[in-house]
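Hi support team,

I submitted a single chain yesterday and got back a structure, but I'm not sure I'm reading the token output correctly. Could someone confirm the output below corresponds to the sequence I sent? I've pasted both exactly as they appear in my results page.

Thanks,
R.
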Amino acid sequence: MAQPSRPFALVVRFIIRPGCEIAFDDLVSRTADGIRAREPGTLVYACHKVEGAARERIIYELYANRAAFEEHNTQVHTRHFLATREALVEATHVDFLNLADGKIPFNT
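Hi R., thanks for writing in. Yes, this is the structure output for that exact sequence:
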């Protein structure tokens, strides 16, 4: 488990149901609006399209610490995303990450 003062991250890979790509991207956009407005502890929330795989998306999330991640999960926009995405995705794979080393823009 991550230490409370250390950054905490996760990578989520989605395979979108055929024809649901635009709806999923719109859902991510609305969710990101809420994150930008209400989550100072969420340092990065970035959704990437995968080259050559039109139905795949990868979301990278970086939090100041585990508490910021837990706070993120209590937000209305996050709960809405989690409930709504189920109808839009075929598969979801989550990797939780604990920082081992690297260049980061803040002190750990």
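A quick pointer for reading it: The chain has one domain: 8-98. Let us know if anything else looks off.

Best,
Support desk
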